[in-house]
Amino acid sequence: MRLMISAHFTVGARINPLRAGIRFVSAVIGPDLRGGSADAPLQRANSGWIAVLCLTVATALLLVVAGHAAGRRDYDVAPLFFWSGVVLLVVPTSLRIAWPTTARGERLFLLFLLAEAFLYCKTVYSPTSFGGYDEFLHWIAAQDLITARRLFLSNPLLPIGPTYPALEILATAIVNLTGLPLFVAGALLLAVLKGTFVGALFLFLESIAGSPRISAIACLAYMGCSTFFLFDSMFSYQSLGIVLCVLTFAVEAASRDLVGRPRLKSLGLIALLLASLAVTHHLSAAFAAIYFGALAALEAWRRHDPLRIKTSTAVGLAAILAIALPSLWVQARGIPLTGYLGPVVETGFKTLLGKILGAPTPPSEHLGVPDKALYMRLTTLLALLLVALGLATGFFRSLAMAAPGGTRSGWRAIQDILKRRWHDSRIILLTLLAFGFPVSVGFRLTSAGWEIGNRMGTFVFIGVGLVVAVSVVHFWEGRTPRGLRRVAPAVALAVIVLGGVMSSTLNPIHGRYRVAADQESIEPMGIETARWTKEWLGAGNRFTTDRINRLLLAGYGRQDVRVAVVQGIDAALLFEAETLGPDEFWALTRSDIDFLLIDLRLTTAPPVLGFYFQPWQARRTTPLSGAALLKFNDVKGVARIYDNGWIVIYDVRGLRENS
């Protein structure tokens, strides 16, 4: 008997901790929505807090400007100024946005303030001209449109760009209406787009979550996306595409309960937005097609309710439009999307799958990209962990928000959803979309898949923001948030936003020139050389050179730049060869290239991004040799017409005359 009692207590001691652990895990990740109240009673915006935060943001932006000024002079204090400004910008504003008692209008105003302040931080990096690589590509296309007054002109630096001309049409329309320079018109357009995006995202999430507070926190969490601070603030077609995407989602969600003529009007507006999106950006149009297609499938799959047929029909029409319009545009223009995106996607998936399966790492993956400062890497890692924690504690709670009324507590809500009973398929879809976050992070761990993961974040974070916001409101803050439970979630959100800023670029501070580092390589010497070619050689000459100088020649010099010397022979082979061998000489004589531009600064350091000419090159760890770049000096038929000590221009037209 004693042995049996002893065994009973031993087993009980083993089972009870297990049960306690299961209950604890269930309480942490479970779908219980009774832990907090989403919104405080209706109240007015606090003008005092708004004034204080506006002054704080202004002070923060002054520190950011001081950081850029110090960076241009290579002062060690530059990071201190810049990041102090960013922290001062993000933390107080995030605390007020996430505060439980903040009014709806005040939250929305502060979201606008923070988004436009981020845009200013990006713009002040290069306050008088475009600075990003992608921005140059679209600036060149916009200049072509202004000059030629015709669409669909070829652009060898971005062959697919002219087939999606919506951004350039808008920018040049502003130029024609106002007389503003193209850069100013582009900056104005970006400011409007940034505000429109934040407003549309807020209204979209509010309409499906039914809570201004959850919507505001979700928008704040979205700003932790690595593309929000820089990439989606560039003069690039994705900056317009993502805005049209979210606007379409917001209109569809807001009109879901309309009937009759108002519903038809809303469908007409959705069709107009989707048609605009089809000619704006291929990836954004694809995401809209996936969103509406998945939404229509969920609507068709869920069990009957009185409004299901009407809702499913409207969503089905939107899905047909979202899929058909971009497809028709691709067919009408003969856009080679498969050839453009296929190799990038295939290589990225193969590299990620190889890492998962333990395959040998390719040599290019060992080189990767340059290391960031330690504090930037630690902040980014902490932000990722906080997002993962928010997803773990908010996933089932977010799903439970879609459960039928009266079953929104406990696991019964999830059981109802598994039985195909829910009231809003949009919540289900966005919650499932958050699963894309770990996939995007996995891609970003590889050089070949980095671009895929980075682009995924723009769309995935719409779902991530919603799930994290539900986690903050219904779990971390609790029913009556006080003290640490009130402050800690807001601080965590601020860290997530800071992580997004720090992961957006290698170095957001404008510093000295660095070799092959995209925007860090764009500086006055190269710009003045490009302008010289336009003034003394005229526009439209055929040039070939390295990746950065191609941009400058096409943008400032208005030259016809070539990526390949002749078909099948890339410019890199011509410049990197130690001697001008028979193959290189044959390529030059058979090409229509007029001039070569040599930048001797490529001999001073390895490329920061791993390549001098094209991203698909093998990664380099050593600089080019001076002998390789200057091998044209003694070639008959080649004339050296420009030399400023670092940059040399050769006239190679004589080779064709002598051949």
Please give a quick description of this structure.
This protein is mainly alpha-helical. It contains 26 helices and seven strands.
Sequence-ordered SSE layout with sheet pairings:
Elements: H1 2-29, H2 47-72, H3 78-98, H4 104-123, H5 133-148, H6 166-178, H7 182-209, H8 212-222, H9 237-254, H10 261-278, H11 282-301, H12 308-333, H13 337-357, H14 363-367, H15 374-400, H16 412-418, H17 425-433, H18 436-444, H19 450-476, H20 484-502, H21 524-537, E1 542-544, H22 547-555, E2 560-561, E3 564-566, E4 569-570, H23 571-576, H24 582-590, E5 595-599, H25 626-629, E6 639-643, E7 647-651, H26 653-658
Parallel strand pairs: 1-2, 1-5
Antiparallel strand pairs: 3-4, 5-7, 6-7
- Main sheet properties: 5 strands, mixed
Strand order of the largest sheet: 2-1-5-7-6
Which geometry do the CA atoms define?
A: globular
Low-confidence stretches: 1-13
Give helix % range. Answer: 55-70%
Q: pLDDT average, as an integer?
A: 87
Rg over alpha carbons: 28 Å
The helix tally amounts to 26
